[in-house]
Amino acid sequence: MTFIRTAIEDVIIIEPDVHGDERGYFVETFRQDKLEEFLGFTVNFCQDNESKSSRGVLRGLHYQLHPAAQSKLVRVIQGKVLDVAVDIRKGSPTFGQHVAVELSSQNKKQMFVPRGFAHGFIVLEDETTFAYKVDNYYSPEHDSGLAFDDAALNIDWNIPKEELKLSEKDTKQPLLKDAKLFDYKVNLYA
User: Fold this and answer.
1) I need a labelling partner for 2 at 20 to 30 A (CA). Which of 11, 111, 121, 177 fits?
2) Model confidence over 115-143: pLDDT tens digits?
3) What residues pair up with 129 in beta bridges, in sequence order?
4) Residue 96's domain is classified under what CATH number?
5) How far apart are the first and last CA of the chain?
6) Which of 63, 132, 137, 189 is catalytic?
7) Of residues 62, 63, 98, 119, which has the active-site annotation?
8) Domain assignment of residue 81, yes or no
9) CA 113, CA 87: separation in Å to the nearest integer?
10) For the segment 76-91, what is each residue's pLDDT rounded down to a tens digit?
């Protein structure tokens, strides 16, 4: 298992070791000890989520506010997505910047999205199954989000806007300048 820091060093790409032969493959998708050793702090995942979507479905950008903020460990079981994490920690040197990584059943990459980031993905292939672990339970009263098409974020979703399939909720999210955000100086893991 290889851990790679991205341009925003708190967002991590994980490349698992894939062992394959004529029978198929075996891959270890999660190791708490190795992740925590790399991160330098404890992450206790408590809920697993899964979604199935068709090409053009955009889910996000979502996050939960403190004290229900969540870290996410995301991966694709079948198909392909462009996965995006946006730094929404006021005062951070990378505030408003994002990391976009293609995750697929072929490359088996995963992305660790820390607390203090908005997260979303666009589905690039039909019949895509997306799975993720979170370290805090879903809390409707702390649920929040950002507009996926905020020009200040400059995210290229790789699919024309007129082809996107969005929930009503995701068409009404605020711009970054109007959103409830995190403070970079507050330890969200304390």
Assistant:
1) 121
2) 999 999 999 999 999 999 999 999 999 99
3) 52, 78
4) 2.60.120.10
5) 27
6) 132
7) 62
8) yes
9) 10
10) 999 999 999 999 999 9
What are the pLDDT digits (tens) for 47-73? 999 999 999 999 999 999 999 999 999
pLDDT attached to residue 20 = 87
- With respect to residue 13, please indicate whether it lies within any of the assigned structural domains: no
CA angle, 174 then 177 then 181, to 5°: 80
**Length of the chain, in residues:** 190
Could you confirm whether 132 is annotated as catalytic? Answer: yes
- Whether 62 is catalytic is yes
Instruction: Give the pLDDT of residue 76.
Output: 98
Structural domain count of the chain = 1
Domain of residue 104, residue span: 45-183
Domain assignment of residue 8, yes or no: no
pTM, to two decimals: 0.95
Q: Which amino acid is at 23?
A: R
Do 72 and 130 contact (CB within 8 A), yes or no?
no
Rounded Cα distance between 77 and 96, Å, is: 29
**C-alpha to C-alpha distances, 30 to 12, 47, 118, 160, nearest whole angstrom:** 13, 14, 22, 34
